[in-house]
Amino acid sequence: MRIFDPHIHMSSRTTDDYEAMYAAGVRALVEPAFWLGQPRTSVGSYTDYFDALIGWERFRAAQFGIRHHCTIALNPKEANDPRCREVLDVLPRYLAKDGVVAVGEVGYDSMTKEEDEVFARQLAMALEHDLPVMVHTPHRDKLEGTKRTLDVVREAGIAPERVIVDHLNEVTVELVKDSGAWMGFSIYPDTKMDEHRMVEILRRYGLDKMIVNSAADWGRSDPLKTAKTGQAMLDGGFTEADVDKVLWQNPVAFYDQSGRLTLDPLPGFTGEAETFEGNSVLRGARK
Questions:
Q1: What is the pLDDT of residues 201-243, one digit of tens each?
Q2: Does residue 275 lie in a domain region?
Q3: CA nearest 112: which of 88, 148, 147, 143?
Q4: Which residues of 218-231 are buried (b: 16+ CB within 10 A; e: fewer)?
Q5: How confident is the model at residue 273 (pLDDT cuts 50, 70, 90)?
Q6: pLDDT digit string, tens, across residues 94-103
Q7: Which residues pair with 70 in a beta bridge?
Q8: CATH number at residue 14
């Protein structure tokens, strides 16, 4: 089982997590820029964070055999803070960096006028920099937020196949599928979506443009939820090829639209994932 986790916040995870992820088959990931849990109060705090995403975190992941990529944006929650608005002016220099594979997370938190403005401006940047877009759907009033998201994306003139709409559930999946955008699902211990519900969604809607992520961050979350979803798929009658499509081929196809993915094995690591008899966790092999 090879895994590309397309949405995980490794800046808030430990080196033990990196080791466990590699052992489970994770060979590449994308870390979206997001809220840190408390307000940032200046542009400088953002640029320090962006610098860490494209530098230190990429280096840290490599020590454990995992290719690290990121997305860059002013996130929806902080779009409402006027102290953060100047961040939009520095985004272009980061969107040109190696390893930045999309604009994101963008979208809605509370669906305010300020979020509308910031969302539209960052969609314009995605067009200007020829990057795909990762969209965060709100945790409250998700159906209305998803409808509004798709309207704004259409108005911006971005092709739907260049957009992933994330944090979906049973209520919103069909809406996004009909739009032609990619469908993202965050598998969480308590909220959002679990692996068993995800299997039923895959059974009903198919595997095309389906993206499964752990979205693990500083809250109660699990960086191995991608692997656990793959195992649940196998237990539910899906084939190994099906699992590979959902956990590897689909996220690779989406982010490869950036032209910046690096997926070859890191020096000292084989990139292979081997199944050990009697162990449902797939382990990677180091040279």
A1: 999 999 999 999 999 888 889 999 999 999 999 999 999 999 9
A2: no
A3: 148
A4: eeebbbbbbbbbbb
A5: low
A6: 999 999 999 9
A7: 31, 100
A8: 3.20.20.140
